[in-house]
């Protein structure tokens, strides 16, 4: 028996295949071409598209469930019979959902947000039905338990089978009806809480605006920051705003915030920015603090329904590390990082006291970044504003593409075809093998901050996958819809019941038609969406990057490459799919380390006016500053990761100890100074409350062990040894970037490095040990 799905109103959306085809022709979310029609996607398209795709894939699921039941009876069960239709459903649904979610994250607006919130319950309901299909689970179990069938599977197929069985168990397929109904209710609640959490951050960020008319108040800020602030003021209606005369509009996007606390001589301004940022989304209508408790409580109940002691154990059931191993890594790194952080804190305090002549000066939280930057300038003779002039975005992008060619043998060129874009600043690039004109992948790049409209941070969204599937409903599913209305409202059926509503009747002809159509599906060209949030061009200057901006770009491009260069032949293990979450950051963190390679850096660091390369002594100073205050960086990362694990394991969400108390306790344990009493950064910690890193933030450090060890392979052969670097680069492409989730991360790492990863390279590379 299957699980009932109630999708109210679907009958009003579709009455025939002809109507479905007509709707698809006018709805950009349902376009099946290689490039989405981003610029045409409006709020009014969301609901019709979701209704249509769910109706069509519901018919496909009906057919699949009946087909698998019959296949088990007549002995015709096979891997393809299960996974071809699952892949088709999964990737087609993801294609529509990804477009909706992407537009929501980069072009937020009240109408679009409202449309997404209307459809979220519908999408979640179908996901629950798919993830709790007894027919699919029974077929998976039969595949797994039948030695003759299992022996025919490749390593990638076996791995996908094992992962899918685990995911079905974690989706509640084995729960009794009452518990399943509760499980489904919790999933829907968590989905809404996550949406509310994200929206609160966006709205809170958008609400903070500080208009400054007196330039003296902004003393110390770089010209690039002033130019962006003046442009924001102009966009807000102050038409005469200029970089030199203002007024200047300061916002809480991270680039502006970091500039204020690092460069503003005005201590009150730094304090105001610090307090606002560290308390973002923690008051009034955008208060995320109570939402955090609700998320934790619901996650805890969900895990216990599945038989786990806590959410951390559930989360880590699909990762490389165990709970103990994750904690052990954090504590091991902390043994070297914390003493280094304490030394760093003593040094910056002494520097500030000497610079001010105040021997009793006590640095406050909003002073630390400012004086750390002054100390960096004094030690390494580097001014960030001067360095920015050598890092125009276009030049850094060109250098990144040159590195990709050097390491991986690929060419990257702008797409000349005029494409529909969600914003005029977006660019599209094609990737081809070196010497070939045939694209093997594409990616979009959206790189400028749009506070209040675009989520902060940087990320890559895998979009079209390298897999055999079709971005349309199958002919068999459309034909099956003729048999009657899909999933009409039923007074006695709920998403958690065992009652089956049969809307599609299986026939041998339909089954054969469906299988033939699936087997003939073309291999799709992968596509990714790369998003960053750096300062846009302003005051007649191009977008000028900080060294951190360049690192972030390289990092995200590493994610993109793993999706775009995959060669896995099993669709649901291609690219980033199927990779354990604590290994996902491996290629991205390896890629970012190339910023500090001499040949790479000098290849992209060109003055935006003259085109001259960065002076050799400046690069030597940049390399020297690479490990500056790494103790503080690591201890803060450990603080966040440890907080995350404790929140999802030992905290009673309804008890007296609050999540903020846990954060402060871990801050006290690992950081070299006390936490700010009003610090509510958990209200702006989207990684773990809305971004997929719940009980998994340790993954950054876990993967960095792998990435640093892998990078050291290049260092060992000499990064100026071109032949050796290219040979290693191709090996990295043909293992780490190609295998995707078809092999375990440990196996992939050993294929590249020849052994298991070691922690010592991480500590040494970051200057924490000799």
Automatic annotation (TrEMBL):
<dbReference type="Pfam" id="PF19310">
    <property type="entry name" value="TOP_N"/>
</dbReference>
<keyword id="KW-0378">Hydrolase</keyword>
<keyword id="KW-0479">Metal-binding</keyword>
<dbReference type="InterPro" id="IPR001567">
    <property type="entry name" value="Pept_M3A_M3B_dom"/>
</dbReference>
<dbReference type="InterPro" id="IPR045090">
    <property type="entry name" value="Pept_M3A_M3B"/>
</dbReference>
<feature type="domain" description="Peptidase M3A/M3B catalytic">
    <location>
        <begin position="264"/>
        <end position="767"/>
    </location>
</feature>
<feature type="domain" description="Oligopeptidase A N-terminal">
    <location>
        <begin position="53"/>
        <end position="177"/>
    </location>
</feature>
<keyword id="KW-0645">Protease</keyword>
<keyword id="KW-0862">Zinc</keyword>
<keyword id="KW-0732">Signal</keyword>
<dbReference type="InterPro" id="IPR024079">
    <property type="entry name" value="MetalloPept_cat_dom_sf"/>
</dbReference>
<dbReference type="Pfam" id="PF01432">
    <property type="entry name" value="Peptidase_M3"/>
</dbReference>
<protein>
    <recommendedName>
        <fullName>oligopeptidase A</fullName>
        <ecNumber>3.4.24.70</ecNumber>
    </recommendedName>
</protein>
<feature type="signal peptide">
    <location>
        <begin position="1"/>
        <end position="21"/>
    </location>
</feature>
<keyword id="KW-0482">Metalloprotease</keyword>
<dbReference type="InterPro" id="IPR045666">
    <property type="entry name" value="OpdA_N"/>
</dbReference>
<dbReference type="InterPro" id="IPR034005">
    <property type="entry name" value="M3A_DCP"/>
</dbReference>
<comment type="similarity">
    <text>Belongs to the peptidase M3 family.</text>
</comment>
<dbReference type="InterPro" id="IPR024077">
    <property type="entry name" value="Neurolysin/TOP_dom2"/>
</dbReference>
């Amino acid at each position: 028996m299957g699980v009932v799905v109630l999708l109210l109103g679907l009958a009003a959306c579709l009455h025939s295949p002809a109507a479905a085809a007509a709707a698809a022709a006018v709805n950009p979310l349902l376009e099946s071409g290689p490039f989405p029609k981003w610029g045409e996607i409006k709020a009014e398209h969301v609901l019709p598209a979701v209704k249509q795709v769910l109706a069509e894939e519901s018919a496909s699921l009906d057919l699949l469930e009946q087909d698998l039941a019959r296949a088990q009876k007549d002995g015709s069960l096979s891997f393809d019979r299960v996974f071809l239709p699952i892949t088709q459903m999964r990737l087609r649904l993801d294609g529509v959902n990804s477009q909706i979610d992407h537009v929501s994250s980069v072009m937020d607006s009240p109408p679009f947000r409202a449309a997404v919130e209307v459809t979220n319950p519908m999408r979640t309901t179908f996901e629950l039905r798919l993830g709790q299909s007894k027919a699919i689970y029974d077929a998976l179990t039969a595949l797994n338990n039948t030695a003759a069938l299992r022996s025919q599977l490749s390593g990638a197929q076996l791995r996908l089978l094992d992962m899918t069985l685990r995911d079905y168990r974690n989706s509640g397929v084995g729960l009794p009806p009452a518990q399943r109904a509760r499980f489904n209710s919790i999933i829907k609640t968590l989905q809404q809480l996550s949406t509310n959490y994200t929206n609160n951050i966006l709205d809170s960020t958008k609400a903070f605006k500080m208009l400054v008319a007196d330039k003296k108040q902004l003393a110390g800020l770089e010209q690039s920051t002033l130019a962006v602030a003046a442009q924001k003021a102009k966009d807000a209606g102050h038409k005469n705003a200029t970089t030199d005369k203002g007024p200047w509009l300061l916002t809480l996007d991270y680039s502006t915030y970091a500039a204020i606390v690092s460069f503003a001589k005005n201590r009150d301004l730094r304090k105001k920015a610090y307090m606002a940022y560290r308390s973002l989304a923690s008051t009034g209508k955008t208060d995320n603090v109570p939402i955090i408790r609700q998320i934790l409580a619901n996650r805890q109940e969900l895990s216990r329904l599945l038989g786990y002691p806590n959410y951390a154990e559930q989360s880590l059931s699909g990762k490389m590390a165990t709970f103990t191993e994750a904690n052990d890594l954090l504590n091991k790194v902390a043994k070297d990082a914390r003493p280094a952080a304490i030394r760093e804190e003593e040094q910056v305090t002494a520097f500030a006291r000497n610079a001010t002549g105040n021997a009793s000066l006590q640095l406050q939280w909003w002073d630390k970044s400012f004086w750390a930057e002054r100390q960096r300038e004094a030690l390494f003779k580097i001014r960030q504003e001067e360095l920015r002039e050598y890092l125009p975005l276009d030049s850094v992008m060109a250098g990144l593409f040159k590195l990709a060619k050097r390491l991986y043998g690929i060419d990257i060129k702008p797409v000349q075809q005029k494409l529909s874009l969600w914003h005029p600043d977006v660019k599209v690039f094609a990737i081809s093998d070196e010497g070939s004109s045939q694209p093997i992948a594409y990616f979009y790049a959206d790189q400028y901050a749009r506070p209040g409209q675009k989520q902060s941070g940087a990320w890559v969204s895998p979009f079209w996958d390298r897999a055999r599937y079709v971005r349309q409903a199958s002919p068999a599913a459309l034909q099956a819809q003729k048999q009657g209305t899909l999933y009409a409202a039923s007074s006695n059926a709920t998403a958690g019941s065992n009652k089956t509503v049969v809307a599609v009747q299986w026939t041998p002809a339909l089954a054969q038609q469906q299988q033939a159509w699936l087997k003939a599906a073309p291999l799709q060209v992968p596509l990714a969406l790369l998003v960053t949030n750096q300062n846009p061009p302003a005051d007649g200057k191009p977008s000028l990057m900080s060294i951190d901006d360049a690192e972030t770009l390289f990092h995200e491009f590493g994610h993109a490459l793993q999706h775009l260069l995959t060669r896995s032949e099993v669709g649901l293990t291609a690219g980033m799919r199927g990779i354990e979450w604590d290994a996902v950051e491996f290629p991205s963190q390896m890629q970012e380390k190339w910023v500090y390679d001499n040949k790479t850096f000098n290849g992209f660091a060109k003055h935006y006016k003259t085109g001259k390369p960065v002076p050799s002594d400046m690069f030597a100073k940049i390399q020297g500053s690479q490990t500056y205050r790494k103790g503080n960086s690591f201890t803060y990362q450990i603080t966040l990761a440890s907080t995350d694990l404790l929140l999802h394991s030992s905290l009673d969400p309804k008890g007296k100890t609050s999540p903020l108390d846990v954060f402060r306790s871990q801050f006290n344990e690992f950081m070299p100074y006390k936490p700010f009493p009003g610090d509510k950064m958990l209200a702006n910690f989207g990684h773990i409350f809305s971004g997929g890193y719940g009980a998994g933030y340790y993954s950054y450090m876990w993967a960095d062990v792998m990435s640093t060890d892998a990078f050291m392979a290049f260092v060992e052969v000499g990064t100026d040894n071109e032949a050796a670097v290219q040979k290693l680069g191709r090996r990295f492409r043909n293992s780490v970037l190609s295998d995707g989730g078809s092999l375990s991360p440990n196996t992939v790492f050993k294929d590249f490095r020849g052994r298991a990863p070691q922690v010592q390279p991480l500590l040494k590379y970051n200057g924490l040990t000799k």
